[in-house]
Design a protein that fits this description.
This protein is an alpha+beta fold. The protein folds into five domains: about 150 residues, Bulb-type lectin domain (Agglutinin, subunit A, Orthogonal Prism); about 130 residues, Bulb-type lectin domain (Agglutinin, subunit A, Orthogonal Prism); about 140 residues, 3-Layer(bba) Sandwich (Hepatocyte Growth Factor); about 100 residues, Phosphorylase Kinase, domain 1 (2-Layer Sandwich); about 220 residues, Transferase(Phosphotransferase), domain 1 (Orthogonal Bundle). It is about 20% helix and about 30% strand. The strands form 13 sheets. It has a six-stranded mixed beta sheet with strand order 38-42-43-41-40-39, with helices on both faces. Helix 8 runs antiparallel to helix 10, helix 10 packs across helix 14 and helix 14 packs antiparallel against helix 15. The chain starts with a helix and ends with a strand. The N terminus and C terminus are likely disordered. Bound molecules: 2-acetamido-2-deoxy-beta-D-glucopyranose (8 copies). The site of one 2-acetamido-2-deoxy-beta-D-glucopyranose has 4 residues, from loops. The site of one 2-acetamido-2-deoxy-beta-D-glucopyranose has 3 residues, from loops. It is an enzyme of class 2 (transferase). This is Receptor-like serine/threonine-protein kinase. One of its GO terms (molecular function) is protein serine/threonine kinase activity.
Length: about 800
Amino acid sequence: MAVTVIYTLSLILLSLHPSCSTFNSITQGSSLSVDDPKHVMLSPNGIFSAGFYAVGENAYSFAVWFSQPYTHNATVVWMANRDQPVNGKGSRLSLLHNGNLELNDADESHVWSTNTVSLSSSVQLLLNDTGNLILHETQDHGVVLWQSFDFPTDTLLPQQVFTRYAKLVSSRSDTNKSSGFYSLFFDNDNILRLLYDGPEVSGLYWPDPWLANWDAHRSGYNNSRVAVMDTLGNFSSSDDFTFLTSDYGNVLHRRLIIDHDGNIRVYSRRQGGDKWSITWQAKERPCSIHGICGPNSLCTYHRTYGLKCSCLPGYKMKSDGDWAYGCEPEFYDSCNKTESRFLFISNVELYGYDFRIMENYTLKQCQDLCLQLCNCMGIQYTYVFGPGTYTCYPKLQLQNAYRIPYFNADLYLKLPSNSSFAYEESKDEYNLACSRRKTQLKKAYDKSHGNSYVKFLFWFAGGVGGFETLCIFLVWFFLVRTKRRPYSGVDARVYNLAMTGFRKFSYSELKQATRGFSEEIGRGAGGVVYKGVLLDRRVAAVKRLEDANQGEEEFLAEVSSIGRLNHMNLIEMWGYCAEGKHRLLVYEYMEHGSLAENIKSNELDWAKRFDIALGTAKGLAYIHEECLEWILHCDVKPQNILLDSDYHPKVADFGLSKLRNRNDTKYSSFSRIRGTRGYMAPEWVFNLPITSKVDVYSYGIVVLEMISGKSATKDVDIDIETVDSGVEKQSLSLVMWLREKQKNNGGVWINEILDQSVEGGYEECKMEALARVALQCVEEEKDKRPTMSQVVEMLHKCSRENDNNPLIISQ
Ligand SMILES: *[C@@H]1O[C@H](CO)[C@@H](O)[C@H](O)[C@H]1NC(C)=O
Ligand SMILES: *[C@@H]1O[C@H](CO)[C@@H](O)[C@H](O)[C@H]1NC(C)=O
Ligand SMILES: *[C@@H]1O[C@H](CO)[C@@H](O)[C@H](O)[C@H]1NC(C)=O
Ligand SMILES: *[C@@H]1O[C@H](CO)[C@@H](O)[C@H](O)[C@H]1NC(C)=O
Ligand SMILES: *[C@@H]1O[C@H](CO)[C@@H](O)[C@H](O)[C@H]1NC(C)=O
Ligand SMILES: *[C@@H]1O[C@H](CO)[C@@H](O)[C@H](O)[C@H]1NC(C)=O
Ligand SMILES: *[C@@H]1O[C@H](CO)[C@@H](O)[C@H](O)[C@H]1NC(C)=O
Ligand SMILES: *[C@@H]1O[C@H](CO)[C@@H](O)[C@H](O)[C@H]1NC(C)=O
């Protein structure tokens, strides 16, 4: 009944619209003409339209699009002839008597057809409510002859099954809808992948090409090769790749698309006229998409500014306005050893096209090798943690170059020695310096000075439950407002749309979910956490923020930037509530509480402990280096590492500093920021620059606690006033104890330090790697500590090498 009413209403509404068409379907012998703007098919629910769509001046493609909005450019979901548009006069789409659907240009030339044949006299073309254009026989069980869902262009709609026979191909650019260089497809090994197939080179870039399938959480064993996204936003593929969109639940419209920048994204919106928000994307680092800036160029990414391509020094842009063709040399390479020099550019990653990989090479050896090779264009020189050596990668092509802060590799570009090319680091590219003084913070937080480059850092120190837990969070990010237009891609503005990506809850809804905030499950930085059950029956942890009385818009902006972080080892934020004075955050609920509660538990055997250490490292590496804004956690401790029902770890409580009330003077007496006693890096105490290495230090302490069973904080009684001088005594004593053991016990030191109360066997290699890595992490000098991604790499190495033949030692 209700359905009929809605249906009738929508028909009435649609009939009021000027471009209303009378077509719900067309039958044999009839056609749609490009000349008549009324020749547009509508799906019964009015959501989708099919007809001739202008793709250029006097150039049309037969397409399916979202009917709304009417006034702006429509969102196209399918095209018949994207690479061969037809004339704006005289072109038509005809359903022939033999059951074939044909698209003919003005000169009657044949452009596209379904190549179908039917003996039936009742063939019909209709546009289904799902956006599927279906050619079927209306009699005899309505055999489907052809459907657009089987031949996707660059978009998948909910319920549209993606198969081994299909391929999503990106469009060429924002404005040019013809086939571009990126595609999504099922590979021969059953894995769903992204491929860059550019003008000069090609390569797979998702999942990360250097990962084994199981490292990428994929399975190559199921050869059904199907993937589908349901209407709620659950995508699942037969290679075990799955995700839920950040706004999982009932949303009016959704679409998954391979954008022209080579990323796959899911967009959704609640109303027909709304803007589309990004609710999921495959690659968090846009610069890591192959070919994005073409050859001989350098990609940089910036939170506000978006992605930026530039030519490497000595190179100039090849095709004006089109980065796909990258840059070409401005110099002539004489191939004479004495006529070349190297130009240094720090923190550059270049994927692929190595002459060879030369381990333990000095810079001199590496450069000499490159000089000997006529076609060597430069070298990537990488520091390898662990052995402490350098690896040399002579590059035969300069492809996929991008700059990332902290990246432990540099580029030495080969240029003629008589040239004067130089690298100018533009100031706004990235600058991770941060200040300590709260007064500076206030000054910097002046958004009205729009033109100057403003970098700022928020920090606050908060005490919850007296001084026992001093919690601090430090987040930095950049606000750059320049008039320069960024790369004309899916830029930062679009990312910002993801702000509305996840759910807003009403206060009453959350009050009901938590049964009046009755079940307290924890206290952390800034508020109390309650357990609750949402209307969709998901169990959630609801954090009620204290002293958070900033404006709703600002709150939303900040919350959504946290909500956008999506990683299996980070606690997931499902939504927020901002109503009146209330500010609440809704997180997924973690069955097993925190690592702190479990560290003494028998449930955590050695394998689980290793996995927790690895997972935590991955989560931290992600917030440090991979997510869209660079975040430090600054309070890594067992209380902030939560465990799910399978004891997989998720890092919690990151990025919250921005949500606290900055005008609160309660904590302003602290002139310094601090983490939690026992886990704080020496930099805090000695007033040294704060970098991501403070988290590395805290992580190291947590791991040492986990394996030794000794606490970094227990039984120490240091007065908070004397913290500055004696703070790290307790954790240092743990570290010193371990270093002694390592020194005095040679090969068997691992057995000496492991917590004897933990049951079960362990793989010696893994435990040794873990202990070694942890000890590196707690080096006093921050430069001697690895980065979080190096930690992940070092831990992975062992688990990979030893998985075939694990050496199990029983205690
Ligand atoms: C529609 O697309 C054209 C280019 O095809 C562009 O110039 C115009 O700004 C777009 N309009 C809107 C409202 O997005
Ligand atoms: C059209 O879509 C609906 C679901 O919205 C489905 O039940 C129906 O079978 C489809 N019609 C055809 C002809 O496939
Ligand atoms: C779109 O790109 C294709 C392929 O690069 C090119 O041939 C065509 O001219 C472009 N169309 C427009 C309107 O720029
Ligand atoms: C998503 O879909 C997959 C496959 O249909 C299913 O196994 C999984 O439980 C679904 N997830 C959710 C949260 O509904
Ligand atoms: C393979 O994947 C399909 C689709 O996800 C699923 O229905 C099927 O059960 C899987 N087969 C096996 C053997 O796991
Ligand atoms: C290389 O250049 C040097 C100095 O420009 C010159 O003396 C030498 O002859 C050149 N060698 C060759 C093989 O061209
Ligand atoms: C690296 O090479 C140097 C000299 O060639 C050698 O002394 C050193 O042991 C090597 N280091 C490693 C880790 O192989
Ligand atoms: C550099 O040397 C090359 C060949 O030796 C010559 O062709 C070129 O003109 C020189 N460039 C400059 C800027 O002197």
